[in-house]
Amino acid sequence: MNTSISGMDSGANSALQSAISKVKRHVLPLFVIMFIVNYIDRVNIGFVRAHMEHDLGIGAAAYGLGAGLFFIGYALFEVPSNILLQKVGARIWLTRIMLTWGLVAAGMAFIQNETHFYILRFLLGVAEAGFFPG
């Protein structure tokens, strides 16, 4: 009886090792790229601060508020985003996060005043909500 149980364990262990290997080859590189893009996106706003002040007239206080609005949107929508992730599935929901995040980030190129900056920073937080836990 022990031989059949050990045979089942080795079969299950083999399937588990195969699944882990597939995740390492297919999913992990994608997640690494996504986290790198996420980091670049978060620090990118700091690089353009001086240009926004000069080109658009967005001062330090407006910049600080816009930077904070990102985290407010992220915090408010993180839990609902994770609930939807469980209902819809990770593949679809992470794709939605990446698409909306990309669209809003691209929209940042078209801001013309402080109000646009505030709205898009908040929407960027909403779009990106649930990315790390997901």
Please provide a written account of the structure.
- The relative contact order is 0.13.
- The longest helix has 46 residues.
- The protein has 134 residues and is mainly alpha-helical.
- The chain has one domain.
- The chain is built from 5 helices and no strands.
Features:
mainly alpha, about 130 residues
Q: How many E-type strands?
A: 0
For the termini, the CA-CA separation is 42 Å
Query: pLDDT under 50 segments (min length 5)?
Result: none
The SSE order reads HHHHH
Number of domains: 1
Largest sheet features: none
What is the averaged pLDDT score?
83
Q: What share of residues are in beta strands?
A: under 5%
Radius of gyration using CA atoms only = 21 Å
> Which class do the helix and strand fractions yield?
mainly alpha
Shape: elongated
Number of helices: 5
Q: Assign a percent range to the helix content.
A: over 70%
Write the layout of secondary structure elements.
Elements: H1 2-47, H2 49-56, H3 60-88, H4 90-107, H5 114-128
In short:
The protein has 134 residues and is mostly helical. Helices cover 87% and strands 0% of the residues.
